Amino acid sequence: MPGRQTLDLIAVTIGPGAFTGLRIGLAAARGLVLATGVPCLGVTTLEAVAHGVVAADRNGATLLVVLDAKRADLYAQAFDFNLDPLADAVAAMPHELAPLLLPGPTVVVGDATDAAVDALSGTDREII
Fold it and tell me: Taking the CB of residue 21, how many other CB atoms lie within 10 A of it?
């Protein structure tokens, strides 16, 4: 197991997501924190996905992260070009996504991208 000399921070997702998966991740992170004394940071699943999109792929556009909630709605959060959240994460129906966005181009990512792009295609939003 890595020791304190190789870890600066332990990050763990805090949701949204499947309850069992979140519990397992949090328990594993807690165990690592207790074993190493390294600080822990909780991030939302949507933030983790957003920070995985490189700047060249965002190209100065608004970033919309959408995840399948396994119901009719989606988990969604919009981020500006610096990856600062534009609002809190929400559970929204696909047709409710447009108001989350800034004017101008938007990049959509996540496992619910198809549903989001389909819903936004009927609006004046520019999806790239």
Answer: 12
* Single-letter code of the amino acid located at 78: A
**Count of C-beta atoms within a 10 Å radius of residue 60:** 11
**Contact yes or no for 79/65 (Cβ under 8 A):** yes
Structure tokens at 15: 């949701």
Exposure of 20 in the CB half-sphere (CA atoms within 13 A): 0
Token pair, residue 109, equals 């990512």
Q: pLDDT, tens digit, for every residue of 106-127? A: 999 999 999 999 999 978 888 9
Using CA atoms, how far apart are residues 20 and 116, in angstroms rounded to an integer? 26
- Give the predicted TM-score (pTM) of the model: 0.86
User: Is 32 exposed, middle or buried (CB count within 10 Å of its CB: 0-12, 13-18, 19+)?
Assistant: middle
Determine contact, residues 37/6, Cβ cutoff 8 Å: no
Q: What is the pLDDT of residue 29?
A: 95
- 68-76 mean pLDDT: 93
Q: Cα-flanking dihedrals φ and ψ of residue 62, to 5°?
A: -65, 145
